[in-house]
Amino acid sequence: MPRLAGKTAIITGGAGGIGHATARLFAEEGARIALVDIDSSALDQVAASVREAVPGAEILAIEADVGQESAAGQIVARSLAAFGSLDILVNNAGIRSYEPLEAAKAETWAKVLSVNLLSYAYLAREALPALRRSGKGAIVNISSTHAFNPRAGMGQYDAAKAGIISLTKTLAFEEVDRGVRVNAVCPGLTLTPFHVRRFAAEGRSEQDLRTEQVDHNIQRRWADPREVAFPILWLASDEASFCTASVIMADGGTRV
Predict the structure, then answer these.
(1) Total tally of structural domains belonging to the chain
(2) What pLDDT, on a 0 to 100 scale, did the predictor assign at position 199?
(3) Among 44, 62, 139, 216, which is 20 to 30 Å from 22 by CA?
(4) In a domain? residue 3
(5) Has this prediction a pTM greater than 0.90?
(6) What is the per-residue pLDDT for 70?
(7) DSSP per-residue string spanning 59-121
(8) Distance between the two ends of the chain, CA-based, in angstroms?
(9) Are residues 80 and 196 in the same domain?
């Protein structure tokens, strides 16, 4: 029996590397998936790719700006209308900003926090009634190793990722008696399309990145997004029934 047979999942940030990998893995394990992203073109490509890789996969592509509070209710409503139930919420959407805190603008703070933190809170709030009805509801929030190891120049992003950890634990404590588990995954250096495009501008190919040795972690390499999707899958599945308020570091042993 596939791990997620009969279950429905919402995955935000679905057009990105980790979202794509998670959607494909969930589909392989029998889940129906509402895939959410603001980039409709990339979202449609990912949905088509998952359907091609997993014949019969049930994918609902939802174009939405999760940074808008109103989007949360609409996403949940559309998912329930399509599939009739909801068992899993994967909050994965995220954006970046490269500003030192001394120059950080209010509008940048607002945008980063709205997508990287508040969307997680709003979607959880709207999904909770359905997740409670599931009886085995699970929320998996995607944070970052930089929640614990912040850097210069990305204070807004790292502060939001740290907030996700607190949000995860608080929500887990609040929902434990209602049958909803809440956990987080902290990816480390992951070779997503974002990074492939970023380094292509410097003349470095994806193959260069896959074969280079890095100092970021003790495995000295980039993760493939699928390697991050596996701990997300496990936390979302009934196999992790005794795990809540937990944080899994999928980071190759990040150096402090």
Answers:
(1) 2
(2) 83
(3) 216
(4) no
(5) yes
(6) 98
(7) EEEEE--TTSHHHHHHHHHHHHHHHS---EEEE-------B-GGG--HHHHHHHHIIIIIHHH
(8) 40
(9) no
The list of the chain residues with pLDDT below 70 reads: none
Q: What b/e readout covers 192-223, taking b as 16+ CB neighbours within 10 angstroms?
A: beebeeebeeeeeeeeebeeeeeebbeeebbb
> Could you tell me how many residues make up the chain?
256
60 part of a folded domain? yes
Annotated active-site residue 120? The verdict is: no
pLDDT of residue 1: 87
pLDDT at 198: 82
Q: What are phi and psi of 44, to 5 degrees?
A: -65, -35
Q: What is the pLDDT of residue 203?
A: 84
**Domain residue limits at 213:** 192-219
Same domain, 215 and 245: no
Q: Cβ contacts of residue 31 below 8 Å, gap of 6+?
A: 4, 5, 7, 8, 9, 88
CA–CA distance, 255 with 86 (Å, rounded to integer): 38
Catalytic residue, from 98, 120, 122, 157: name it.
157
> Does one domain contain both 60 and 105?
yes
Does a structural domain hold residue 1?
no
Q: Are residues 61 and 167 in the same domain?
A: yes
Q: What are 64-84's pLDDT values in tens digits?
A: 999 999 999 999 999 999 999
